[in-house]
Every structure is written in structure tokens, then in C-alpha cells.
Amino acid sequence: MDKIKYLSRIQLFGDLDLEELKKYEPVTPMKVVKKGTIISSPHMDQKILYLIKSGKVRLYRLTESGKEFTIDILETGHVFGEIGTFTTGSENLYAEAWEDSVICRIDKVQFEKLIRENPSISLKLLEIISSRLKEVEELLEYMAYSSARKRLLFLLNKLTEKFGEKLLSSSPGEWVALDIYITHQELAMMMGSIRETVTALLNEFNAEGIIRKAGRRGTIEVHIVHLKRALNEDE
To answer: 133 vs 55, 94, 137, 138, CA distance in Å?
Structure first.
């Protein structure tokens, strides 16, 4: 896929036309990052804005006990990092490639030049930041005050909104498959729990018709109606 098509996927550049994308191509070098690579951390001095051109990136923080707590998983088109007075809500977090990904970096000088030439980009960034902070605030509220069951229902709902793909065999508004491979341990890290609790809850959800597993890798499929009903009932 050529680089212009990659750039057109980025939220920050979504409103730019082809000629404008061509202009910014030289200042957005691409780099392939292998799964598990730490892209940024609170200990890195240099402030960089990162653009995900393909793949997925996990944002997490370390708890006082040293455990990893996943805050978000970002996919193609998302931005993270901080630069100058701009931040995307990911400061003080670690960013790790969830899978092999193509990432681009923009430094402070490049970014300031970019927004001078196209002020609409700074407005787009503010829109992205506002949405991100709202999501994180909602997540942390659920993590702090809800039961393990409700936290997992909430998490599955968020993952479905971000990574759900409708199955051709299902009726409208029913089963969707999560286009992301995620283990019970990883789900536990995202909801501040332990793997055994997640496994027990997923077994419950399977019996209730909220989820089912498919394929050799155990892709999670979610019944949207049943999930939302359970989430509302547990209010």
C-alpha cells in the first residue's frame, strides 16, 4: 500500500485532500515496529507525536505494585504521545505495539510547521484529545466503582465498538466478531482483575448467550443485544 493511503487513514489528516497529503508525506517517515516493542514511556525525555498507520498499540500504566494496567488499545488511524503543549491523554503511560505495526513520528518542529500551514489540524487534534479523555475517564470510573462482572461487560462493549465486525451469517444487530486477538490474562489487565476471574465470567457469559468462541484461536464473538441488556440490568 502506498504511503499516501496510509496517511489518509490517520484521524489527524482525515479532512485533507490528496495534494495536502502529498505535501506532508516527507515529514512523516514510517517505521515498522514489532509486536511487544515499547514505543514510548514516561522515562523518555523527547516528546513526540506518534501516528498509527497500521496495526494496534496498547497504552498502559504501572500500578504501585508494579503490575501493568491497560488503559486503551489504539488501532489504525489513532494518534498518541505528547508534543510541546499538546498531549493526547497518553502522557505518563507506556505505549507498546500490540501487534506488528507501522508507526510514524512527528517532532515539535515538524508539528508546529504543520499546524501553521493548516490550523484545522490543531482543531482536529483537540477533538481527538477530548474524545480520548472522555473514554479514559469513563473507563476509570467503571474500574473504580463497579463489580468484576460489570467491568468485563463494559470492557467487551468498548472492544465491540472499536473492533467489532458484523458476521455475514447473523441478523442485523446480533453477533459480531472482535477483530483483535486477546487472551484472558490481557482482559484481566484491562479491567484490574485476575485471569481466573475473567475465565469464570466468560464461561458465565457463554452460558447466557452473550459471547461465544469461534475458530482455533478462539476469536470472541459477541451478541450485541444480549450484551447491552446484561450491561443495563447490572446498573
So the answer is: 22, 16, 6, 9
**Residue 36, Cβ neighbours under 10 Å: how many?**
11
For cell 477530548, what's the residue? 130
Handedness of CA 84, 85, 90, 94 (dihedral sign): positive
Residue 193 banded pLDDT, cuts 50, 70, 90: confident
Contact at 8 Å (CB) between 72 and 134? no
pLDDT one-digit tens code per residue, 209-220: 999 987 656 789
| Beta bridge partner(s), residue 57 | 74, 97
In whole angstroms, what is the distance from residue 100 CA to residue 54 CA?
Answer: 8
Per-residue pLDDT tens for 12-50?
A: 555 554 455 555 555 566 789 999 999 988 877 667 888
Is 46 strand, coil or helix?
coil
- How much is the pTM? 0.74
Q: Which long-range contacts (CB under 8 A, 24 or more apart) does 19-26 make?
A: 20/118, 23/117, 24/114
Q: Which three cell numbers stand for residue 84?
A: 510541546
Cβ-based neighbour number of residue 70 at 10 Å: 23
3 burial (CB, 10 Å; 0-12 / 13-18 / 19+) is middle
